[in-house]
Amino acid sequence: MSIPRALTTLLAFTLVATGSVVAQTTPSSAPTPSTPALDAPAADGDFWRVVFSPYTYHFSSDPDHEAVYAIGLERQRSDKWLWGATYFSNSFGQPSGYLYFGQHYADLFSVDKLFAQWTVGLLYGYKYPYEDKVPFNHNGFSPGAVVSLGWQFTRQFSMSANLLGTAGLMLQMSIDFR
Description:
It is built from 1 helix and 8 strands. By secondary structure, it is mostly beta strands. Strand 7 and strand 8 form a beta hairpin. The N terminus is likely disordered.
């Protein structure tokens, strides 16, 4: 499998940024009074999330399937609502996008770091000859829905498994900017 240079660079940047975020969350031996607490919530409770998906598992085998990569930006709100956009290469190598809104549920089943999320929105990119691969497709546009189950490792870093209908399961890494 050959990974395009841009995606390799993006993955390297994501790993470096993740290491930087994790390093920032490591407590020092003596807190500095002039430094704000890292765990303090944002003034409005809302924050931005950058998402990156390096791997997708397809439930069915198709010789036309290609590796799926995604990058996106999401606005998480303190009232559990969220909205965002994702750019990705679909299962057939076509540039695609997903504009969505949904809800995020933290501390799922009273487990501190476990969360769930659902989104619905507008999917674009499944064009000829793959327009039949998503339901209700019209000129490349179709409805989309994603259900996720994830783990919040630190205040800034999480991973989730995203169910993509009956097509597959996507691994997603997220960096939060609070």
